[in-house]
Amino acid sequence: MPGATLSRWTMSYFAAACLFLVIGQGIMVAGYGYPFADVDAPETLALVHVLAIGWLGLLMVGALLQFVPVLVAAPLRGGRLALPVLLLLVSGLLLLVGGFGTMADLGELSPAMLPLGALLLVTGFGLAAAMLAATLVAARPLPLPARFVGLGLLALVATVLIGAVFALVLSGTVASDFATTLLIHGVPSHAALGLGGWLTLTAVGVSYRLLPMFMLAPEEARGTSRLVWWAGSAALALVVGRITWLVLDDSAAQGPLAFAALLAGIATLLYCADVIRLFRERRRKAVELNIRASYAAFVALFLSVVLFIVPGARAAAGEGGAALVYLFVFGWLTGLGLAQLYKIVPFLTWLECYGSVLGRVAVPRVQDLVRERRSSLWFCLYYGAVAAATGALFAESALWFRAALLLQLIATVGLIAELVRARMLSSVAEPLRFPIGAPRPHLFLPIARQQE
Amino acid sequence: MNPAPRELDVRPILRSGGEPFQAIMEAVSGLKPGQGLRLFAPFRPLPLFKVMESRGFGHAAKEIEGGDWEVLFTPNATGTPVEASADAENADTWPDPAEHLDLTELDPPEPMVRILAAAERLQPGEVLFALLSREPIFLFPELAKRGHQWAGNFDETRTTFRIFVRAGKKG
């Protein structure tokens, strides 16, 4: 039967993700990792993976467990794996970070933690990708947003496998020429596949569905949106192709990567044109905060990608274009993630709590679960702090960077507190808060099955 | 099999000096998936052919007694397939809807709230019809949980989702 129900463990994924976001920003405020250490120092690697896997990865998997069934109007396959996957990913990440931490503290290889962490992460992400892919395959032909998710899952698998090879080399478990070559040349590809392929293509796909829904804009797939998909596919194929080429010839040319970056730039421009068009064609004139905050993320996406392609700007952005990568991760991916959480968490809570009594008793509106005015201040502070932190990285001022990050951390904690209030229904006026027959949601655990 | 075409006679409206377009569009919106519309008019309604074509209907017009015209609009086969709850058999034999709701301009999840509230007001076996701007994915399991049957699909332009809900026994 068509239709989608609440994903049982999505809130637990979100809670873990938010926790890792706070931890990640907290250790940056404390002066750990880049720019206080090198871009490729173990400290930076630990920090990057707390954010990329702990925050963004868990956020995205949790969101997809809920929204892939919505995208294809079919139930999730293998839903019982959701909790084991969460446990695998969290324990794998902790081992991985522990492995990097050991390297940083002792300057030694970590023979056990890195490979074991990689094994758990490969298993966890592999199972997550299998559940989501099986759901997609069963629902073919796929609408365009779901095809973006499919592409993102391919990129996820590639990212994780390459990462696992890195872990094997860094721990001294494997010392083959190919694996070493991959580690020396493949790090930018690993990052591009993870941040650009997996996280960005998936976010783009889901946004093509969610933006029209929240703004009442026309939803049919446009030619430009299809072009974004094709450009994204081609860029992905180029990056994966070059990595395969490295196996045969360790002097593989940089040409494919430059061309992939160009394609990514074109895809970004087309995507930005699409989101502007959706905004113009919306039938809902007053847009909610989650939409306004998402458009701030689109600005960050546009700036970070376009400046990354301009050689002078990238050179000024520090080692590996660090300032622009920062803007991409915190302005675009994290900004969009927080903006959508701000809508999704109240909505899912509302459905969980009031779904079974809708139409029978008076219930609050979804927007009654949050305080928009206060939250909009947090979002302003957040994006202001991201802009300041990016500027501080360009200016190579570690002190200003930490100061900006402290503000960014405060804004994030403020927004997370808002999400907690939504879960606790604390903003809902008393007579409507707990109608008779409505279950009380737990903060981040599912309601027991018999109550559903 | 497709349900029998719905009939609409706009001659009385025109005779009394009224404008039948609104009535025609309401009738079209209320058509069940796959259902046609048989229209009676005092002239051959040429402009309407264009409008209906854009909504995915073909037409066959013939002159009848007294110089009036009978036009049969039939949906083109391009409409999306009908989805239905597992227990919704023979949805084309359901009674005519007791309630019509146009929810196309409402933000989600308001359409879901309105449909569930309207379904509460129905007597067992009664049917409601609603138009939405998107497929109400989260509504389907809730209807099934409450023992209501439903059948629906997108219209030919894929911009409006049409759903019939038949109330189950009061639970």
The number of distinct β-strands of chain B equals: 9
Query: Percent range for helical residues of chain A?
Result: over 70%
The main β sheet of chain A shows up as:
none
Physical arrangement of strands within the biggest beta sheet of chain B: 5-8-9-7-6
- H/E element order of chain B: EHHEHEEEEHEHEE
Rg calc of chain A: 21 Å
Structural class of chain A, please? mainly alpha
Keywords (chain A): Membrane, Transmembrane, Transmembrane helix
Protein name (chain A): Transmembrane protein
Transmembrane segments (chain A): 12-34, 46-74, 81-104, 116-139, 151-175, 195-215, 227-248, 254-273, 294-317, 323-342, 375-394, 400-420
InterPro entries (chain B): DUF2249, TusA-like_sf
Write the layout of secondary structure elements.
The complex is a heterodimer of chains A (about 450) and B (about 170).
Chain A: H1 10-29, H2 42-72, H3 82-106, H4 113-138, H5 144-170, H6 177-215, H7 223-248, H8 255-280, H9 289-309, H10 311-316, H11 322-354, H12 372-394, H13 398-424, H14 430-433
Chain B: E1 6-9, H1 11-15, H2 21-29, E2 37-41, H3 46-54, E3 57-63, E4 69-75, E5 83-84, E6 99-102, H4 110-121, E7 127-132, H5 139-145, E8 149-154, E9 161-166
Parallel strand pairs in B: 1-2, 6-7
Antiparallel strand pairs in B: 2-4, 3-4, 5-8, 7-9, 8-9
